[in-house]
Amino acid sequence: MNPLISFLVLSLPIVASGADLGVPLSWRKFYNERPLEERQNIAQAAIDNIKQYLDKENYEFKGLGYWVSANTYSAIALKDKIVGTQANKALVTAALKVSASLLELLAQLSLTLMVEKSNFESYPHFYKYDFNDDALWWGTASIYAYQAYNDTTFLNYAIDNWNEASK
């Protein structure tokens, strides 16, 4: 390979690392004066608002699609983790798995009801389509759910997802 081309190719990471990714000082207000609690309440209000678009048949948000819905669940779980609450655990859990307690209750009552399957059960390894990046977003949501709610089922979903994607 030509030495000049080699030099240019090898220089690209150095040039890229010099990019200023900070908020421009010319912005009128590049900081946030809102108190932490107010920002947390705004985040929860946004979550409460997006619930109206939830399609409970597949736990995707209408208009967002499969992988963007996974990113939404990631953001919701991260909000709970950062705030230190489990305010949205039921929503995230419903999207990722069918509640074990619900299945146990149905078994105790000897009921055979149509239970909606979670995304993990409907699409093994979260592979709804043949694109591993779509599935990996659900794996990422599972990691964040594990961190937020300390439920190893979510961690196992993420491990299973990664093992499949990395084949």
TrEMBL record:
<feature type="signal peptide">
    <location>
        <begin position="1"/>
        <end position="18"/>
    </location>
</feature>
<dbReference type="InterPro" id="IPR008928">
    <property type="entry name" value="6-hairpin_glycosidase_sf"/>
</dbReference>
<protein>
    <submittedName>
        <fullName>Endo-1,6-alpha-mannosidase</fullName>
    </submittedName>
</protein>
<keyword id="KW-0732">Signal</keyword>
<dbReference type="GO" id="GO:0005975">
    <property type="term" value="P:carbohydrate metabolic process"/>
</dbReference>
